[in-house]
């Protein structure tokens, strides 16, 4: 819409192009030529009056000279109009058409005088004066478009009155009261002509003023619109550049992080002494913290750019909450905290929302509660209220930790805000968790807010979400409980690792070293296609960013092969949901994001083995 508005305003002529001397003259000429025949109605009426009061010969004379004047004026206007459109100098054309206009008015004045002089009685005088007034008003109305022609016409027509007065005064007959009545008529009709012409001219000038102001305001709006459009394009380009930068940085950070985390996991499974074990644990914990930071920054960027999309799938709220408790309870127990989950029985068995984002919010809230609580407990209480759209889910997360100062109750939801207390600085973090959680909650039809702490110290956070009703007959959803366990033994299969990074290939080989899996490798997408054609692997772990042929194009070519199709799993450092969608659209079956853990890889391969056995 903005682009259409810019195009339409850019096509508008300027004030001078619309109301300058040349366009006004051309408009005057067009109007005079267009109304030529219409004006002859007045000629016919005047000729009839002359015929009735003076005679047929006088009427014929009036018609002849009037048509002659109109014809000369029309030809002159046509000539001048053609020259004006050719861009010829305007002043000579204005003088020429003013002369023809004066000649045309002289023919009218002659007819009026003929009627005044030739009538045997005084009755025709009023008719003659009315014609003169009409011609005067017409001449005054064109003052706005052709001032020179208007003045010439008015001068010629005005001369008819003193000529008439001189004729009467030179007559041997004495002046009577009728003459003075005629003079009063002249004054009255002249005043009316002046009033009408003046009103028309003032209206025209006011219109020009309004038009100029409107065009100036339109030009201002157009300039503002162009500035806004430029700002919008700049903002979009900046957002795209930021998104591309973050996607690139995510990929570049996740690739070495995959090696650090994976090798740390392999080392942790070795028989290490206590000190070496602590070193490896520190490495793994640091890599997990770095991954959380990368994920938070990516989520914040996508939310800020409006690029984060929510899924709407059926799930079990109870299972999601209990799964969160199982994940977070070991962390609480490490600090000697009690972790309780209370479900009051009002939760629906199944509902529709984004289960992944709900888990993300719950993980943020509960991990913060555990992080900032040194002793006591962390409680999660969940309930739901049915409404017209489904259910209103309410989750209250409370702890007995350090609490939040009164002056920071709303600041904690600001991006990157971490407060100033020593505990916050000691625990670290990006300061994005609560900000992302609130935005997600609001995107999911709810809110996240801090409640008064009550009699005890600590923090109380209230999360509300709108859940939609699941389809009737739905009995289960896609939950992590349905995935194979990490300890599920893998059957014998051939797995192709297509990755241009040698460390990533080695890492996956080491993850699968103790399983009955035959591993083959390809260093780019083209090798992956050729190896698939010759070796026919059961499963392909396909990286997306590879030389020669990227993972998406390689997948499309493999899906076009006339042979048994492998189960293709995207193994990539690209973490956007759009990347997952692109992988599924290209024909992949699953998606694993780096850094990769051994347990995630085993689950994915177990699921692939099950799918291959079923013939999918």
From TrEMBL:
Alphabetical keyword list: ATP-binding, Coiled coil, Kinase, Membrane, Nucleotide-binding, Phosphoprotein, Transferase, Transmembrane, Transmembrane helix, Two-component regulatory system
Example GO molecular function: ATP binding
Domain Response regulatory: 494-609
Main location group: membrane
Highest taxon, organism lineage: Bacteria
CDD domains reported for this sequence: HATPase_EvgS-ArcB-TorS-like, HisKA, REC_hyHK_CKI1_RcsC-like
Chain segments annotated as transmembrane: 58-81, 93-119, 125-142, 154-173, 179-201
Coiled coil: 214-241
Pfam families: HATPase_c, HisKA, Response_reg
Positions where 4-aspartylphosphate occurs in the chain: 543
Cellular component terms (Gene Ontology): membrane
Gene3D superfamilies in alphabetical order: 1.10.287.130, 3.40.50.2300, Histidine kinase-like ATPase, C-terminal domain
EC number: 2.7.13.3
InterPro entries per record: CheY-like_superfamily (IPR011006), HATPase_C_sf (IPR036890), HATPase_dom (IPR003594), His_kinase_dom (IPR005467), HisK_dim/P_dom (IPR003661), HisK_dim/P_sf (IPR036097), Sig_transdc_His_kin-like_C (IPR004358), Sig_transdc_resp-reg_receiver (IPR001789)
Localization annotation: Membrane
Catalytic activity: ATP + protein L-histidine = ADP + protein N-phospho-L-histidine
Ranges where the Histidine kinase domain occurs: 248-469
Keyword Metal-binding: no
SUPFAM superfamilies for the chain: ATPase domain of HSP90 chaperone/DNA topoisomerase II/histidine kinase (SSF55874), CheY-like (SSF52172), Homodimeric domain of signal transducing histidine kinase (SSF47384)
PANTHER family: HYBRID SIGNAL TRANSDUCTION HISTIDINE KINASE J
Protein name, UniProt field: histidine kinase
Organism expressing this protein natively: Pseudooceanicola marinus
Gene that encodes it: luxQ_1
């Amino acid at each position: 819409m903005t682009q259409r508005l810019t195009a339409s305003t850019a096509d508008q002529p300027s004030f001078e192009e619309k109301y300058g001397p040349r366009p006004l003259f051309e408009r005057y000429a067009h109007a005079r030529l267009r109304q030529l025949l219409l004006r002859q109605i007045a000629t016919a009426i005047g000729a009839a009056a002359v015929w009735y009061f003076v005679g047929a010969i006088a009427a014929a004379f009036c018609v002849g000279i009037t048509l002659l004047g109109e014809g000369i004026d029309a030809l002159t206007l046509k000539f001048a109009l053609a020259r004006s459109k050719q861009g010829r100098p305007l002043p000579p054309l204005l003088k020429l058409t003013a002369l023809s206009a004066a000649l045309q008015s002289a023919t009218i004045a002659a007819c009026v005088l003929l009627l005044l002089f030739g009538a045997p009685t005084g009755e025709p005088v009023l008719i003659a004066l009315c014609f003169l007034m009409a011609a005067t008003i017409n001449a005054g109305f064109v003052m706005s478009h052709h001032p020179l022609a208007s003045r010439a016409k008015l001068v010629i027509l005005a001369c008819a009155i003193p000529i008439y007065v001189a004729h009467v005064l030179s007559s041997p007959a004495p002046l009577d009261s009728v003459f003075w009545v005629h003079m009063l008529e002249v004054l009255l009709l002249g005043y009316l002509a002046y009033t009408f012409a003046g009103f028309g001219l003032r209206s025209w000038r006011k219109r020009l003023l309004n038009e100029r102001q409107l065009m100036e305001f339109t030009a201002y709006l157009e300039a503002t619109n162009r500035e806004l459009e430029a700002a919008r394009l700049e903002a979009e380009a900046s957002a795209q550049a930021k998104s591309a930068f973050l996607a690139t940085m995510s990929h570049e950070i996740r690739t070495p992080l995959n090696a650090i985390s994976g090798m740390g996991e392999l080392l942790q499974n070795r028989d290490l002494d206590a000190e070496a074990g602590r070193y490896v644990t520190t490495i793994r914990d640091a890599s997990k913290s770095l991954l959380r930071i990368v994920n938070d920054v990516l989520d914040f960027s996508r939310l800020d750019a409006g690029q984060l999309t929510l899924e709407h799938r059926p799930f079990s709220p109870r299972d999601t909450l209990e799964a969160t408790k199982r994940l977070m309870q070991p962390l609480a127990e490490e600090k000697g905290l009690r972790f309780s989950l209370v479900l009051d029985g009002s939760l629906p068995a199944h509902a529709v929302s984004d289960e992944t984002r709900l888990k993300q919010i719950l993980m943020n809230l509960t991990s913060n509660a555990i992080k900032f609580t040194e002793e006591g407990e962390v409680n999660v209480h969940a309930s739901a209220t049915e409404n017209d759209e489904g259910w209103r889910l309410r989750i209250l997360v409370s702890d007995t930790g350090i609490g939040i100062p009164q002056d920071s109750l709303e600041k904690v939801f600001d991006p990157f805000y971490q407060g100033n207390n020593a505990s916050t600085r000691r625990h670290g973090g990006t300061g994005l968790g609560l900000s992302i959680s609130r935005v997600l909650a609001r995107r999911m039809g709810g809110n996240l807010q801090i409640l008064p702490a009550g009699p005890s110290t600590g923090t109380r956070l209230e999360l509300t979400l709108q859940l939609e009703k699941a389809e009737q007959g739905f009995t289960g959803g896609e939950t992590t409980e349905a995935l194979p366990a990490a300890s599920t033994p893998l059957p014998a299969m051939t797995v192709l690792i297509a990755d241009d990074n040698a460390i990533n290939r080695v890492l996956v080989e080491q993850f699968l070293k103790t399983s009955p899996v035959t591993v083959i490798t390809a260093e780019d997408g083209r090798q992956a296609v050729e190896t698939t054609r010759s070796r026919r692997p059961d499963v392909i772990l396909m990286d997306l960013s590879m030389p020669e042929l990227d993972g998406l194009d390689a997948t499309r070519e493999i899906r076009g092969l006339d042979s048994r199709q492998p189960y293709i799993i995207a193994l990539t450092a690209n973490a956007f949901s759009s990347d997952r969608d692109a992988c599924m659209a290209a024909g992949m079956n699953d998606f694993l994001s780096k850094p990769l853990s051994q347990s995630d890889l085993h689950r994915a391969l177990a699921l692939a083995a099950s799918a291959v056995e079923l013939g999918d």
